[in-house]
UniProtKB/TrEMBL annotation:
<feature type="domain" description="Phosphoribosyl-AMP cyclohydrolase">
    <location>
        <begin position="30"/>
        <end position="104"/>
    </location>
</feature>
<comment type="function">
    <text>Catalyzes the hydrolysis of the adenine ring of phosphoribosyl-AMP.</text>
</comment>
<dbReference type="GO" id="GO:0000105">
    <property type="term" value="P:L-histidine biosynthetic process"/>
</dbReference>
<dbReference type="GO" id="GO:0004635">
    <property type="term" value="F:phosphoribosyl-AMP cyclohydrolase activity"/>
</dbReference>
<feature type="binding site">
    <location>
        <position position="102"/>
    </location>
    <ligand>
        <name>Zn(2+)</name>
    </ligand>
</feature>
<feature type="binding site">
    <location>
        <position position="95"/>
    </location>
    <ligand>
        <name>Zn(2+)</name>
    </ligand>
</feature>
<keyword id="KW-0862">Zinc</keyword>
<dbReference type="Pfam" id="PF01502">
    <property type="entry name" value="PRA-CH"/>
</dbReference>
<comment type="pathway">
    <text>Amino-acid biosynthesis; L-histidine biosynthesis; L-histidine from 5-phospho-alpha-D-ribose 1-diphosphate: step 3/9.</text>
</comment>
<comment type="subunit">
    <text>Homodimer.</text>
</comment>
<keyword id="KW-0378">Hydrolase</keyword>
<keyword id="KW-0479">Metal-binding</keyword>
<dbReference type="GO" id="GO:0004636">
    <property type="term" value="F:phosphoribosyl-ATP diphosphatase activity"/>
</dbReference>
<dbReference type="InterPro" id="IPR038019">
    <property type="entry name" value="PRib_AMP_CycHydrolase_sf"/>
</dbReference>
<dbReference type="GO" id="GO:0005737">
    <property type="term" value="C:cytoplasm"/>
</dbReference>
<keyword id="KW-0460">Magnesium</keyword>
<dbReference type="GO" id="GO:0000287">
    <property type="term" value="F:magnesium ion binding"/>
</dbReference>
Length: 126
């Protein structure tokens, strides 16, 4: 049997986009990047682990904030170049802004409008 990680089409930097989705509601929580090690560890540890391009290292979601993403399922799209993680967002906050989702801005009347409340002040998280 071939290595399941070989089925993923990694980009030139060895990364693949990963979308975290609430496993119960289907809401998109965030998008981040994963390298081969991050995806393998995500499955092994049963929690979302990403690769931080800015810090050039693995990033265990919730390592600072406590807002861990517990893994329920991993899906690979038809082109094998995007991962979807079905997760349980511990604490209900995925975004560093203190919101449930990073996708809290809606295009309305020619501008972006924030429509989701801040659940916790980021200063109290980090």
């Amino acid at each position: 049997m071939s290595n399941w990680l070989d089925a993923v089409k990694w980009d030139d930097n060895g990364l693949v986009p990963a979308i975290a989705q609430d496993w119960k509601t289907g809401r998109i929580l965030m998008m981040a990047w994963m390298n081969r090690e991050a995806l393998q560890l995500t499955v092994q540890e049963n929690r979302a682990i990403y690769y931080s391009r800015s810090r050039q290292k693995l990033w265990r979601k919730g390592e600072e904030s406590g807002h861990v993403q517990q893994l329920h399922e991993v899906r690979l799209d038809c082109d094998a170049d995007v991962i979807v993680l079905q997760v349980e967002q511990i604490g209900g906050i995925a975004c560093h802004t203190g919101r449930e989702s990073c996708f809290y801005q809606v295009w309305q009347d020619g501008d972006w409008v924030s429509v989701d409340p801040v659940l916790k002040d980021p200063k109290d998280i980090y």
